[in-house]
Automatic annotation (TrEMBL):
Signal peptide: none annotated. Its EC number is 5.3.2.2. This is oxaloacetate tautomerase. GO terms for molecular function: acetylpyruvate hydrolase activity; metal ion binding; oxaloacetate tautomerase activity. It catalyses: oxaloacetate = enol-oxaloacetate. Keywords: Metal-binding. Residues 16-146 form the Fumarylacetoacetase-like C-terminal domain. Belongs to the FAH family. It comes from Notodromas monacha. GO terms for cellular component: mitochondrion.
Amino acid sequence: MANAANIQNFVKFGRKIVCIGRNYKDHIAEMKAALPTKPVVFIKPATSYIQQGHSIVIPPECDDLHHEVELGVVIGSLARNVEQSSAMSFVAGYCLALDMTARDLQQDCKTKGLPWEIAKGFDTSCPIGEFIPAEKISDPHDLDLWSVY
């Protein structure tokens, strides 16, 4: 496990944000998308992080910005090809996160068969809250999440 100071400052030391899309049935229905049989994985670069007190910079070509409230899971040590039974042992903590999406840019990319990182991975596209150590949340599957803006 990385040292506690580095974990709490994951924004500075984190190298990427691994996201799982289409993991919420109501949102899948809202987007008129098919329920995936495997996780839909996409990456946001570390430049996507933005902390409280800073502003989201909307891409100038975006006219339709959406947000989704997410539980950010902070991985505390190197984890590759982890078995489901041991996955939680890699979790150092959590944070509230927003997944900002330029929906119009995303739709344009999808229509053209292009990757849609430009719509999800722009700088400041992942506002996050404070780090919460894993031991403070007894069941991460039983949380109510919301944001006020």
